[in-house]
Known about the structure:
Radius of gyration: 53 Å
GO molecular function, one term: GTPase activity
Domain GED: 670-761
Domain Dynamin-type G: 53-328
Family: Belongs to the TRAFAC class dynamin-like GTPase superfamily. Dynamin/Fzo/YdjA family.
Pfam families: Dynamin_M, Dynamin_N, GED
Helix content: 40-55%
Amino acid sequence: xxxxxxxxxxxxxxxxxxxxxxxxxxxxxxxxxxxxxxxxxxxxxxxxxxxxxxxxxxxxxxxxxxxxxxxxxxxxxxxxxxxxxxxxxxxxxxxxxxxxxxxxxxxxxxxxxxxxxxxxxxxxxxxxxxxxxxxxxxxxxxxxxxxxxxxxxxxxxxxxxxxxxxxxxxxxxxxxxxxxxxxxxxxxxxxxxxxxxxxxxxxxxxxxxxxxxxxxxxxxxxxxxxxxxxxxxxxxxxxxxxxxxxxxxxxxxxxxxxxxxxxxxxxxxxxxxxxxxxxxxxxxxxxxxxxxxxxxxxxxxxxxxxxxxxxxxxxxxxxxxxxxxxxxxxxxxxxxxxxxxxxxxxxxxxxxxxxxxxxxxxxxxxxxxxxxxxxxxxxxxxxxxxxxxxxxxxxxxxxxxxxxxxxxxxxxxxxxxxxxxxxxxxxxxxxxxxxxxxxxxxxxxxxxxxxxxxxxxxxxxxxxxxxxxxxxxxxxxxxxxxxxxxxxxxxxxxxxxxxxxxxxxxxxxxxxxxxxxxxxxxxxxxxxxxxxxxxxxxxxxxxxxxxxxxxxxxxxxxxxxxxxxxxxxxxxxxxxxxxxxxxxxxxxxxxxxxxxxxxxxxxxxxxxxxxxxxxxxxxxxxxxxxxxxxxxxxxxxxxxxxxxxxxxxxxxxxxxxxxxxxxxxxxxxxxxxxxxxxxxxxxxxxxxxxxxxxxxxxxxxxxxxxxxxxxxxxxxxxxxxxxxxxxxxxxxxxxxxxxxxxxxxxxxxxxxxxxxxxxxxxxxxxxxxxxxxxxxxxxxxxxxxxxxxxxxxxxxxxxxxxxxxxxxxxxxxxxx
Length: 816
C-alpha cells in the first residue's frame, strides 16, 4: 500500500485539519520545485565536504538509541534499506534525499531505486537489500566494524513515486555506555555531532521519542531545546504508541500538554522486532498502523497528528515553507561567497610555463607595483585611509610639522652666554684695544650656529627614507604572496635604490650647509646691518640700566671731590688710551713710600720722571747683583735690605677669563653681536627650511618615483631569472586548487538557484545584480533586446518554464 493509498483510507481530519490539507495540496507543486533544487544544491556542496560554509535547509532526525528513528525513515520511504541490530546501527550521518518520480499511471514508471553519491557514474541500485549492505560497508570503511563512529556523511538518494520530496539527515542515536571501539566520551562526541547540524538556523529538527518513556526527560527534546530554545524549528515524533501500558494513551503528548512545541507532534506505530524477523513489509506495517488508530477511540479526533502519511505531509509542508523563508538569504550568501572566492582565486593567478608568459607576468607585477608606489606618494591610491595620514601626506608632515617647526623653535643664542660673546670679542682684538666692535666674532659665532643645522637636516632625510621604505612595503600586492623569491628580490632592489638616493641627498644637504658657512652675506636685504644694530643695542642697554638706578647716600664733600677728580682722570686716561687692558683683571703691585724716596737717591736727577725704572731697570738689577757678590758680607746684607722694596709681578694664570663685571661699552658690544647673530641666523634658517626639503624631494623622493620602474627592469627582468623568481610555494598551489574547486561549486549553486520558478521567490529584486556576481559566471549578463535604463536582463537558458529573470525582463522591457 502506497502513501497515497493510506492517505485515502485514513479518517477525515476535523475542519481545522482540512485547511491544512488544502494548504498541503496547494504547496505540493511548489514542493516539487524547491525541494529538488535544494537537493541538487546539497549534492553540489557535498563536493566540498566540511569546507563548505553554506548551510542548506534540511531535516535532521535525532533521538536516543533504539528510539525508532530508523523505522520512521523506512516508513517514510516505504522500503527496508537501513542497517538493523540491537546495538548502535547509525554510526555515520546519513543524508537521505527522497525524490518523487512520476508513477506509471501518470506516464512514468513504478520503479524505485537508490543512488549513492560516493559511487561512480550515479549507479542505480534497485535492490534495497544491496543499499543496506552498501551503507554498512561504507560505514565500516571509515568507522571500523566494531561500533566506531565517524562524522563523515553518507549521501543517498531514493527515487520513488510513493514518496514526497523531503531531505532528511539520520544522525547516530544518543548512547550512554560505550561499546566496542567507542571512546569513553562517546555520548559527548555524538551530542557534539548532533549539535553541529541542528544549531544551524536552516535545519529543522525531527525529535523522535518513544511513547513508553518520560517525555520530560527525552534526550531528543533536550538536545533540540539546546539548539532551538524557542521551538520554532522542532517537530516532535512519538513512536511505539502500540506498546504503551493498557488503559493509557498519548493524546496529551500529541496535543502538546506535557512539553509544548510550536510545530506540534505526530504519533506513529513502528514495526516491532517480531515484524522485522518475520519480514513483514513496510506497506503491511502502514496498514497495521491505520487499523491501530481506527481501533483506539482516544485518537479519533487527532487524525492530522497520526500516522506516517501525515508525518510525510507535515514534513514536506514545513520544509517547503522553511525553504521559502530562507531562499533570499541563501542566494545572498551564495552570491557573496562566490564574489569573495572569485577574488581570492584571481589573487593566486594562473600558472604559466613559457618564457614569454613568465616575462609578461613579471612585467605586469613590476608595472603594477610602480603604479601603486607613485599613487601612494601622490595621494591617488584606491584605498585612501580616513583614520590616519599615509603616503605622501606623511612626507609633507615631516617637512612642515617636524623639520621646519623644530628649526623655528631654536634660539641661536641659547647656548651662548654674554661671557662667551665678550671673550670672542676680546680674542678678536689681539694685543690691541679695538676702537669699534670687531667683525670676526660675529663671523665665528654665526658659522658655529649654522653648523648646528646640519644634524636636523640629515635626520629629516633619514625620516623621509624610512617613510619611503614603509610605502614600498605597503605596495606589496596580494598577488606577490605567491612568489616569495620575487617579493624578496623586489624588496632588496628598492631598498638598495632608496639608499642610493639617500647618499646624494645627504651630500647635497652638506653642501648647502657648507655654502651658507663659506660666505656670510651681510649685504642681504633682510639683514639688520650695523647701524640699526647699534641703535637697537644702545636702546636696549639704556632701557635695561634705568630700573637699576638707585639713590646713593650723601658723601663727604671732600671725599666726593676726590672721587670725581679720580673718575675724571680715569675717563681721560680711557679716552686717550682706549679700552682698559682689554677688560682683563690684573693684580698690580703698589709702590711704597720708601721706594719713592729711595729712587731719587739711587737714580739721580732723572728719577722724578721714573725713567730709570722703565728704561734702565735691567741695568740696575745687574749692578745690584754684581755689588752683592763683590762686597763683604756686612755690606751685602745692608744692600739687600735696601733692595727689599722692589716690585715683583704675579705670573699670569694658565687660563684667563674675562672679569665678571663689564662696562656699558662692553654691554653694547655684546648686544650688537646678538642682534647681528639672530638676524643672519633667521636668514640662513629660512634658506635651509626651503632648500633641504627640495634637495630631499629631488634626489630621493622624485628620483625613486621616476626611475624605479627602469631599475626593476634592469635588475630583475632577465630571462634567466624568470623561473627562479616566479616559483610559488606549495601552499599557494594548494590554495589555488581549493579555491578553484570552491568557485566551480558556487557557480553551479548560483545557476541552480536561477532555475527556481517565479512563485518560489518571496522577495523580488527585479533581476538587478547588486553583488557584482554576474561577471564571475559564464552565463551572459545582458541582452541587446531587453535593456532598461537601470539594468539588463537575460532569459534563463535550458528551462521550459518562465524563470523570475525572464518575467522581470518582460515586465521591465514593456513597462508593466
